[in-house]
Write a structure and sequence with these properties.
Elements (H helix, E strand, L loop, with lengths): L7 H11 L2 H6 L9 H19 L3 H7 L2 E3 L2 E3 L2 H12 L18 H19 L5 H11 L2 H13 L2 E6 L15 E4 L6 E12 L8 E9 L10 E7 L10 E6 L10 E14 L5 H37 L24 H33 L3 H37 L10 H9 L8 H14 L4 H19 L6 H25 L9 H33 L3 H17 L4 H8 L12
Parallel strand pairs: 3-6
Antiparallel strand pairs: 1-2, 4-5, 5-9, 6-7, 7-9, 8-9
Helix pairs in contact: 1-3, 1-10, 3-6, 4-6, 6-9, 6-10, 7-8, 7-9, 9-10, 9-11, 10-11, 10-16, 10-17, 11-12, 11-13, 11-14, 11-16, 13-16, 14-15, 14-16, 15-16, 16-17, 16-18
């Protein structure tokens, strides 16, 4: 009843038309052999893996779950079969550096692939999901010995990695971490790690023989707080083939992601090696975390796409009541598909608009990362990094909320059937919820955006982003087509609104001792939404402009333009309460600390 069809045509439209990726690739020597035909071929093969191999394992894995016994974890057999094909077909190495065995393809294509994977099976995707972040972290901060020992196996998928941060008493506050790393000798990179970590995705499993854990820990005498954290690589299997003192003490019984092993891990004098400099582990870990946050945003996008297409498919088949109006070519009938009823049309069109706008933004972030990493022009590299850093918290928060609440909204299309496991949507609702929590809760993302990205540099990156987005206003107007004027007007209004709110917050930030220090913290969530809707408005305007020339002769492009116009009229007004609250200066009341 539930199936996943990769939206290849829309993916191609975003990559080829909206982002004009071929122009960017043509200027980057690392991608000199990449063209649109190659990109399409990669997407088609990736789509076949996602729909034909991975998607059939989703529901059965949810029912079977993972099993823990005496420190060992067994994953559903379908997940093992799919993982073997993933490795054998080279998918793990897609965007990894060629010098260590990777294929060196653009992050943009990897983003498209990692939209498909969680849409097909989010639980399974948790196992290789941290792979690229681990490669980036090791490549940037690992010693030559660690790179030689582990990079090739991680890139091939023969070894998987974890990110071991959270401890039971600390939650999101990493400054409270207690896990210890004691050097075996003065000045040695080799350490013995002792402590316990919780919520470790893929901490133990039977997909690969070895697992490398990237662990945040404290060296003896390290400063308190974040400044005293070091990053340590702790393998499950040591280089001599013996088992390290790392154990899975259990797996969590969770609301969703049943086929993903979420582990409690204990390190009892486990052997490990420092990654990067002592007491600088958090900066090394952030390389991994930033990669993970984009992947989590793509998980939200994948859920939104899968929920939307299945809801539309069901609505076109489910017949109930007579519609009061019918489109051209559809004759009235005693009972009509619910897809013809206005309430369902509005719900489904909204989900489509959010999905297609979100895809533009997520893929743009992938393209910016490619330019940051590889473009020969220093200014383009700087631009790519600055814009990607600003987009990351917005995408992680907004797309994961859209993925979960979108799936929850889509469930309504099925009515009572949506509450039943066989129809698939209830699993999507459960599985999508956790993405709003991990890799930094969405509240932390909002604080990161406003305090550390906008206020910290006096709005410099925001001004850069605004200049990029305002170019679309002129692009719409330069066509001379009056159908694009509403998009230009709306985008100008959204950017003016974002600028006015930002300027007020920046002025408060500059007020020194007289500043209301709680104001940005009170409104950070709303501020992020205002920024997200401004970005969506840009994505819808750009998509409409590029679809319009062929809308008169091609049904697909005509429907694309109509959907973008619907987004402008029906979805964009949702920003109003967020903008109102973001301007609010009233303090919050206090809660009692005892009940």
């Amino acid at each position: 009843m539930w199936k996943y069809d990769p939206p290849l045509r829309d993916m191609q439209f975003v990559i080829a038309d909206v982002l004009n990726a071929a122009e960017s690739w043509g200027a980057i020597p690392a991608f000199e052999e990449m063209d649109l035909d190659t990109a399409v071929a990669v997407l088609e093969e990736a789509g076949r893996f996602a729909s034909d191999v991975l998607a059939p394992t989703n529901a059965e894995g949810d029912l079977e779950g993972c099993h823990w016994a005496d420190g060992e974890v067994t994953v559903p057999e379908g997940c093992r079969t799919a993982y073997r094909q993933f490795v054998e077909n080279g998918w793990a190495a897609l965007a990894c550096p060629p010098e260590h065995g990777g294929q060196g393809l653009p992050q943009l294509l990897n983003a498209a692939f990692y939209e498909m994977l969680p849409a097909a099976n989010h639980s399974w995707t948790m196992y290789p999901g941290i792979l690229h972040g681990a490669v980036e972290c090791l490549s940037a901060h690992g010693s030559d010995t660690l790179k030689e020992r582990y990079l090739a196996d991680i890139i091939s998928g023969e070894t998987l990695a974890t990110m071991c941060i959270t401890e039971a008493h600390a939650g999101s506050d990493v400054s409270l971490l207690r896990t210890q790393a004691v050097p075996v000798a003065d000045g040695a990179d080799e350490v013995k790690v002792t402590g316990s970590k919780i919520f470790i995705s893929g901490g133990e499993h039977n997909l690969t023989a070895n697992i490398v854990h990237l662990v945040l820990a404290r060296l003896p005498g390290a400063p308190a707080g974040n400044r005293g954290l070091s990053l340590v690589l702790v393998p499950k299997i040591l280089p001599d083939g013996t088992r390290n003192n790392v154990r899975c003490d259990g797996i969590e019984k969770k609301m969703g992601l049943k086929a993903s092993a979420t582990c409690v891990m204990s390190f009892d004098g486990a052997t490990g090696w420092l990654i990067g400099k002592p007491n600088r582990g958090l900066s090394a870990m952030f390389v991994m975390m930033n990669s993970a946050r984009l992947h989590v945003a793509l998980q939200g996008l994948g859920h939104l796409e899968a929920a939307t297409q299945n809801a539309i498919r069901y609505a076109a088949e489910r017949q109930q009541m007579r519609a009061v109006a019918h489109p051209d070519g559809v004759a009235p009938a005693p009972v009509d598909p619910i897809a013809l009823h206005p309430a369902m049309r509005r719900k489904l069109l909204r989900l489509e608009a959010l999905t297609q706008g979100g895809r533009v933004l997520a893929y743009w972030a992938g393209l910016l990362l490619d330019e940051h990493d590889h473009h020969p022009d220093a200014d383009r590299r700087e631009r790519g990094g600055a814009l990607a850093s600003l987009l990351t918290p917005i995408l992680k928060s907004f797309l994961t909320e859209s993925g979960h609440y979108g799936a929850d909204d889509a469930l309504q299309v099925w009515g009572g059937y949506g509450y039943i496991h066989e129809y698939g949507i209830e699993q999507a609702v459960r599985d999508s919820r956790v993405a709003m929590i991990y890799e930094g809760t969405n509240e932390i993302q909002a604080i990161d955006l406003l305090l550390r990205k906008v206020l910290a540099d006096d709005g410099a990156r925001l001004t850069q982003l605004e200049a990029e987005l305002r170019q679309e206003i002129e692009a719409c107007r330069s066509t001379g087509d009056s159908q694009l004027e509403p998009f230009a007007v709306a985008l100008a209004q959204q950017l003016d609104q974002l600028r006015a709110i930002s300027d007020a917050l920046l002025a408060n930030h500059a007020a020194g001792d007289s500043a209301d220090r709680e104001w940005p913290l009170r409104v950070a969530d709303d501020y992020l939404k205002v920024a997200a809707y401004a970005l969506l408005c840009w994505a819808w305007a750009r998509s409409a402009r590029l679809a319009l020339p062929q809308a008169g002769s091609d049904t697909w492009y005509r429907r694309k333009f109509e959907l973008m116009r619907f987004a402008l009229d029906w979805v964009l007004p949702e920003v109003t309460p967020f903008a109102t609250r973001a301007r609010a200066r009233d303090p919050l009341p206090w809660l009692p600390l005892e009940y």
